[in-house]
Amino acid sequence: MPELPEAERARRTLESALGRRIVDVDDRDSYVCRPHPPGEIATALTGHTLATAHRRGKFMWLETEDGPALGLHLGMAGRIVVDPEDSSRWDRFTLGFDDGGRLVLRDKRRLGRAVLNPDFSHVGPDAAEVGRVEFRRRIGAGRAPIKARLLDQRAISGIGNLLADQILWQARVSPKRLTGDLSMSDLDRLRREVRAAVRSAIRKGGAHTGRFIAARGRDGRCPRDGHRLDRDRIGGRTTYWCPACQP
Q: In angstroms, how far is the first alpha carbon of the chain from the final one?
């Protein structure tokens, strides 16, 4: 599933569509465009020019110069393509521009979304940008396993299963540790590793590129000390960690 790094790379792809006027919209897929009926997004966006591209966590949106915003989400397997050479059967939503180019949400699994004026009030601050004080407050509160808290998009947004395991390994923190047991020093170190892991994943091409992620598996061993990894379900997700260096 795309996580923050994949969404940020998609947002950067969206930037190549800025300054272009929309002349056509294919919003016929009523599942991807729900709750909008076919034609509603087209009517709202046609004639407007894309101005800015934004992201919070895994959610993206495009502002127009003088009209509505368009929210986009990659779902589990979607990707953004600007000016593709060919059409695909997996093209779920398309903007056509006055210069003949296109912006496409291409998604085999049909779980991506396109929506007008998205509401992100339920989403926490972006994991790559949250400040130290707010991180301490949002992540350190309560008695949840830290892995589950990192996955809670209401606390901070953008961290998925792979990135959470990579971050906790880098920070040398067990995914089972309770949030209320983490010291301020632990939380500050964890925030530093969140930022480091996100930057690395964006640069390398996605959350799957982390050094620890390559070792995740039933017979996996820690890249740092060679110890066999432990495996369990935490926060509803399959989780791997090194019991030796993540006590």
A: 28
